[in-house]
TrEMBL record:
Listed GO MF terms: ATP binding
Protein's UniProt name: ABC transporter ATP-binding protein
Origin: domain of life: Bacteria
InterPro entries, sorted: AAA+_ATPase (IPR003593), ABC_transp_ATP-bind (IPR050319), ABC_transporter-like_ATP-bd (IPR003439), P-loop_NTPase (IPR027417)
Domain ABC transporter: 22-236
Family membership noted in the UniProt record: Belongs to the ABC transporter superfamily.
């Protein structure tokens, strides 16, 4: 079912503050005095796929970064299962920040060119103190899931295609088994077959894990196929 919600408020956001899900409450963000998000509510329940759309510059990526706990809002807050999260990135405890992962449009902008694909996938595990053996096992498992061969895992970003690098980014996003996965135009740069494969891996993961997914895309066909409901952000 697709529900179009005019304005900046997610009409499906449950009233109960303790409701299960990842939620933005009255989120405001400004860059240099220019307001991009103005009291935005958005709720992603476990297992559902919410589409987020809006004109270019309306703040979709900004909202995704706030929900991914990468950008502190100037007003409002984010909750997971009703728990307000104070702080972003490494100021949050690992058990909270690893519950949300994000996949960006450009894998090249999101990866360190000096690392092999195997090290890119294992990066978040090193940050949480996982042993080298466990990290290697998890990397191999995820490489298999996203369709990366052992040969590709030894290469660095300059020696693989955008599609292969995005598969590594997807594996990295899933490495901590997040409860919420945010896909910000994550398949826009990919050819049709890689796009379909990435979407299938995400959908299969979602089904097994009961994860909530937020999809940002300008592609109406992909939105209709993927999202259970759609929230519209108005122009900033
Ligand atoms: N770090 C930043 N510093 C200053 N302005 C920024 C920054 N990030 C985004 N903006 C501005 O904020 C506005 C919203 O950007 P954002 O990328 O969130 O929009 P969007 O809806 O995702 O756009 P698109 O659909 O084109 O990707 C834009 O005007 C953008 O130029």
């Amino acid at each position: 079912m697709t529900l179009t919600v005019p304005g900046a408020t997610d009409a499906a956001a449950p009233g109960a503050a303790s409701a299960a899900g990842l939620a933005a409450h009255q989120v405001c963000v400004a860059y240099g005095g220019q307001r991009v998000l103005d009291r935005v509510d958005l709720h992603v329940a476990p297992g559902e796929t919410v589409g987020l759309r809006g004109p270019s510059g309306s703040g979709k990526s900004t909202l995704a970064r706030v929900l991914a706990l990468l950008h502190a809002p100037d007003g409002g807050h984010v909750t997971i299962d009703g728990q307000p999260l104070g702080g972003v990135r490494h100021r949050l405890p690992a058990h909270l920040r690893t519950r949300v992962a994000i996949l960006f449009q450009s894998p090249r902008a999101a990866t360190d060119p000096r690392l092999s694909l195997a090290d890119i996938i294992a990066e978040p595990l090193r940050a949480t103190g996982t042993s080298r053996e466990q990290a290697a096992a998890r990397t191999a498992e995820l490489a298999d899931l996203v369709g990366l061969t052992a040969d590709l895992l030894t290469r660095r970003p300059h020696a693989v295609s955008d599609g292969q690098l995005q598969r590594a980014c997807l594996a990295r996003a899933l490495v901590h088994r997040p409860d919420y996965l945010l896909c910000d135009e994550a398949t826009a740069m990919l050819d049709a077959s890689t796009q379909a494969h990435v979407a299938a891996v995400v959908t299969d993961y979602q089904r097994r894990q009961g994860a909530g997914v937020l999809v940002i895309t300008h592609d109406p066909a992909l939105m209709a196929r993927w999202a259970n409901r759609v929230v519209d952000l108005p122009a900033a």
